[in-house]
Amino acid sequence: TVPPSYVIQKFLNARRFEELAAYLLKAHGKDETKRQFVLDDPYGFPRPLEELDELKTRPELTTLLINCYAKLKDVAALDRFVRNEDDLAVDGATAVVALRDAGYYGHAEKAAVAFEEFEWRCVLALERDPWRPEEALEFFDRMDVLSRFRCVRRFGIRLVKDFPDRTTELLMRLATAPDVEVDDCVRPEDENTPVCYEEELQLRKEELRQRNRPTTPQAFPPDSDSDDEGFTCDDFPHFFVHRPGHLRLFCDYVMNFDERGRTRNICTTLCELLIDEWRSLKDNDGSEELLEQKSEDIMALLRSDAPYDRMVALVLVETREFPPGTLYLYETKFAQEPVPYQDRKEPWWTRRQKRRSQKFRDAVRPEERIIPHGLRNGILVQEYHKRGRIGDMLRICRAEGRSDPLLWILACQTTAGAIPPEVLKRKRYFGLGDDKAEVWDPEAAREADEHTARCANEGYAAEGFVDSDYAKMYAPKPPPPPPPPPTDPEILRKLDEREDRCSDLKEVLKALDEEKGLHPRRVVELVCQNENVPLGAMLPYLKTVLGRWHAETEAENKESRRLEKECAAMRKELHDSKCAEVAALPNVNEYADVLQMEPGPEKTALLDEILEEKYRIDEEAADRWREEEGLPPLSKEDREALLDKIMSEDDRKWMEIHKKRQEPVDHEQFFRELEDPDTGGFDCVARWIGKGVISDDAPIDVDALKKYPYIVGEEVAKDEEGRYLINVAPALRPYVQEPEVVGRGTVELDDPGVAESKGD
Asked: Which tens digits make up the pLDDT trace of 472-485?
């Protein structure tokens, strides 16, 4: 037998193309192919008949045969070859490529169909101009899954742009097709798993790929050796860059088909597309039914367990101004910890980037972003106020207000700041001047009223001119009739809006008073920041606060009076017990003058001196007795322990108060608390008054008190001019301003007339 290469060389040298074509056509027969295979592999293993029947002629022989026909321009022979009338063992892919390279595109397309090379049929329809995508799409479903994905990876964007409906349907079926099964040769659950599992797995994968690597030309070659790992639904959205409407259909279909389509990218993309469609309808004045349907679709997606990115969804609803979504995300999704998400399988594009870039492989997935709890509550308060849901706003403030008082401040500011200005300016008739003036001057009104009353009741009555023409000429004009109620719908709408806003403020102030969220002084400061707030909106709150303060003050006054009575009774009881103890002394006659004195500080001081002397004598006697008995003297600690045993609870309380009064005082801290704007210094005074900082039992110095004659307080004395003097706490005297002397004259108030005499 002669090798085919020798025969081919002889024909080519003699340029005998017809004989060469006949030889090559005979070499493509199935029997000749089997015989040549046996000659090329004489020591090979026995092969099954099925494998021998599937043998194909070597690709180079097929290419040479087609080139011979092209050289001879034998179209009839090409037609017969394409129809495979002689039942040849031809490699279809090689024949299609050779025909395409020879310029016979029509024969190449027929050969692709005849030899079932549908991948090449799609390539021939898509790579030429003008391209024919409708023909390619007819053969799309006849390819295997990986070839279909590689086809759309190459031509997908253009296919979706020109044929969106048909291509979208094909992509839906492709994305939901069964996963590509890749035989890894070794699995963790197999018996006798190798020690170096990962390394052995990679080696066996590579061996399998080398064995299965095709030797014929491929229409859609793989991107790399690892391109047989399949794809995910995340590999398809970029094909719809020119067709966002069809992308929404694709995402909706694959997300609801099975769990493979419920990826974070697909769900987030669908959320964005739905919100964009809603925004477009709203900007173009779409029908209410369509808007309502889109809103329901968006909220259904947000409420579902789809793993969309909640931060991206929040940005979308905020920027597109979709209020229901904003409120729902803040109320539910950001009220709980983020759910960790892990891709079921990485997209093909990600795997390719990791194969090509070490930096991409080392990249770390960013952590789930969260919103601080206090910021979320503040935003919810603002969102509830925008929608008029004052009850929900107050619910947040009541639940979180104690731990975060800023919520109450925000609620008060937003409700007070939302009150619009007054639509109708109120007029007040002063009795004098222009009755059409719109400015209300309380001082001018008071002067006008006083002048009118004085002229009408005093001056004219004394002179008998009450009913005279002079009195009528200067009498005030009658007030104008009240204006009719407004009828303009716009004014009525503004009045209703102002009334509603005032009602919201009243509700917030009522909740503030019930929960004691802020000090009333701070509440008044916040409300007064908006000059449009009427007094009527604040009046119920002020009445409630002042009424409660009045009741508390009355209760405290009642308690103080009760304590004063108890204190007076205790003083009398203590005085009587001291007198009885002194009267029981053997030398009581020496203290008869003291016992006959009227009760007072002087008598109490003398009794204390007598009893202290008695206690000292008794203590010395007790020490001498212990010394005579041979007992050790009592230490200070022992005396305090004995005293503690015989001391009552009231005595212990007063001793503790006495010790606190003896503690050193931080005056700087005292004055800082005294200037606290929230309390006004009252809490500081109440807390420090018992520590000696503010004292009212200091000795009265009449000469020093003459400098402060106009301070309201307890009357203690009078100076030479007959002015009352009061007792001022020594700690506060340096901060009381001295009155300025206006003039040296005196005013006598007892005389019926008022006269002023100037001194020299």
From this structure: 565 555 555 656 77
